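step=predict obj=Cell shape-determining protein MreC n=276
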Amino acid sequence: MKNSFYRFLLYGFIIILFFVMLFSFVFTNKKLTKDISFNVSGLVTKVDSVVSVPFTVLSKSHNVLSDLLSTYSENRDLKKSLSNLENQSAIISNLQEENDSLRASLNLSDKLGRDNVLTAEVSMRPSVTWLKELTINVGKSKNVSKSMLATSNGGVIGFVTKVYDDTTTISLLSSSSSDSYLASSVKSEDGNQIFGIISRYDNKKKLLEMTQLNSSSNVKVGTEVVTSGLDDVSVKDVPIGTVDSVIDYEGNRTILVKSYADFDKISYVTLVGDGK
């Protein structure tokens, strides 16, 4: 038992002595210490560089994500500003169109010198009957009658066909129905009056067709076409539009008329005639 104890003490002493001699050798040998320190430092640097890679990637990713979020926010604000500008521009454009329409109505009233000129707002115009008819917000209570013509932007657009207490239905010249015919006239180059009827609207060309002419006299492009009043119902000398061109086909002459009114943009309607 004692021999084992002494043997353990001897081994312990030898180990301690070994480490003491080793440390003494290392710390007394500066070159070896420097080499060990250099190698350890290099190893630590390499380990640090390896360990820092994911953190560097995460940092860069965070920066990229932050930039993307900032760009998205700026784009959203820009789109919102652009949308507001477009809405304001559309509102201004609509107001300008309405102003032009009302101004043309006033000019028409002054030109005709009639007391019975009534301006109303379009209250209904379904897309299925867009080129056929529309409804305005005045009726019998304002002395509207079927003898009145409907104008917009200074030119005839149609007739009064149905009158109710507070609304009126207008049949448009752009309609293909037979009740859209309008007695009209235009001066020829030699100063004579040519009579005919506005019988059709070419939706592709956006032009009215004046047919059944009583004369083959030449007509100058740009000459004003007006109502003739020969139907004994509508008012005479109400502007319709101007001559765009003249077509002769198999002995039949057609005058193409560019309407003063845009049938796709009618906000206000001015009724002209004798209310009864």
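step=describe
The mean pLDDT is 79.
step=end
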